[in-house]
Amino acid sequence: MEVCVFYLLGIIITVAGSDVTSSMKAKNLALYGKATQSDLIENPWAQYGHAYNAIDGNTDSHYHHGSCTATDQQHHPWWRVDLLNEFTITSITITNRADCCPERINGAEVHIGNSLVNEGNSNPWAGVIPTLPAGQSFTFNFEKSFSGRYVNVIIPKENQILTLCEVEVYGFPTPHGENVALSGRATQSSLYDRGFASNAIDGNRDGTYAHGSCTHTNNDYGPWWRLDLLKTHKVFSIIVVNTVDSVPDRLNGAEVRVGDSLENNGNNNHRCAVVSVDKENPVMSFDCKGVEGRFVNVVIPEKKEYLTLCEVEVFGAPLI
């Protein structure tokens, strides 16, 4: 299959057939939403044109098979899916009609946002379809993040008919700054004294070990601590709070790893940071750039050492 890539105002848009591979591992958020449109076509085939047909999971692009939408001819016809919650949208795939008039969709705009002003058509502009052959699919892969509850498709012209045979929306719940570590479960390579693994996710940043809110392993080779978020998340940032009174230099060179594997107790997952201790600032923040994973590990590799953590905070969003 030949794939052409267009660069349009910072958006990478891929024209492909109905076999979409960019979001194969993700869930299509539109399937769980509610759809509406500016009106329903009134011709004898009206029963085939309901707004819901574009989120029924069926990419059959023959209108008379009953899985496409259609409006009457009108000024600025539009279609909208309500995702029922706010999501950060990573890609949208639109499938065009195959049996008739494919040119009707050319120039259609996609808008994403949280407002219903002007039926959602005033939300931020996310892209436009310049041309789309009959029965083919058009995928917007967004380099810039768009966040919103509503996805609109509108033809900003007069005397137009809008027909869509499927709209697929991929993304993840928009993070709002919650520390998702608080809902997780922690373990570690061993236990020294009262330094339980769960102390690092108790919501307490107190760095004084003697106060009872820090972890502590034995003098292990490659000591590690692991957080199970209970499901895969996109992890954007991690805060690690070091001890202030229990040899803080021990944490130098520790690695922060994120991923879905439990191979080597999770210590082989993607490395998103290496700790460099600052004795003046025990609170260290690391950018993990949206790496996906269920497990967050802190490990001191290839040496015998004690591992102490006074808090680990994880900011991200669960994948649907």
Structural overview:
Helices cover 0% and strands 40% of the residues. With 320 residues, the chain is mainly β. The strands form 3 sheets. Strands 1, 2, 3, 4, 5, 6, 7 and 8 form an 8-stranded antiparallel sheet that branches. Strands 9, 11, 12, 13, 14 and 16 form a 6-stranded antiparallel sheet that branches.
Topology:
Elements: E1 4-8, E2 11-16, E3 34-37, E4 78-95, E5 109-113, E6 125-128, E7 137-154, E8 166-173, E9 185-188, E10 220-221, E11 224-241, E12 255-259, E13 270-274, E14 283-299, E15 304-305, E16 311-318
Antiparallel strand pairs: 1-2, 2-7, 3-4, 4-7, 4-8, 5-6, 5-7, 9-11, 10-15, 11-14, 11-16, 12-13, 12-14
Quick recap:
The protein has no helices and 16 strands.
Comma- or semicolon-separated keywords:
mainly beta; eight-stranded antiparallel β-sheet; Jelly Rolls; 320 residues; six-stranded antiparallel β-sheet; elongated
For the biggest sheet, the summary is: 8 strands, antiparallel
What number of structural domains do the residues give? 2
The CATH topology of the largest domain corresponds to Jelly Rolls
Q: What sort of overall outline do the alpha carbons produce when their principal axes are compared?
A: elongated
Distance between the termini: 30 Å
Oligomer: single chain
CATH class of the largest domain: Mainly Beta
